[in-house]
Amino acid sequence: MTVEALVPMLRCADIGTMVRFYCQTLGFRIDGGDEALGWVSLARDDVSIMLSRLSEHEGDQRPHFTGSLYFRVDDVDTRWLLLCERATVCYPIEDFPYGMREFGIYDPEGYLLQFGQPIRS
Q: Any transmembrane segments, and where (predicted)?
């Protein structure tokens, strides 16, 4: 068995706001689904994310997720300059002792998005 991809499915109270944020702020495009149907597939470069309405049959009351989505990018400094004033910042850009330069922001539903790049020696 070969795993071909891992595509996170983020549940949203306001799927329209999330679609606009991921497309207009982060540069994703819609590549499937429909907001009216309650889910949308988004893509950018080789990354895919799906957004869905809260799941009533599973009893969702609000979005919840205990992890984060970590995006490895090729120019973290430029990404920081583009996003630092367009999103709620969790932590600003910083060099970390484990060899990554990264920052974290929140999307409109409160999911933590981290962007990082290996520090060049």
A: none
Q: Does 55 score more than 90 pLDDT?
A: no
Residue 5 to residues 22, 48, 49, 119: CA-CA distances in angstroms?
19, 9, 11, 26
Domain membership of residue 60 (yes or no) is no
Asked if residue 80 belongs to a domain, the reply is yes
Task: Give CA–CA dist 121/116, Å, rounded.
Answer: 15
pLDDT at 103 over 80: yes
Domain count, the chain: 2
pTM surpassing 0.85?
Answer: yes
Residues 38, 79, single domain; the answer is no
Q: Is residue 36 part of a domain?
A: yes
- The domain in which residue 92 lies consists of 67-121
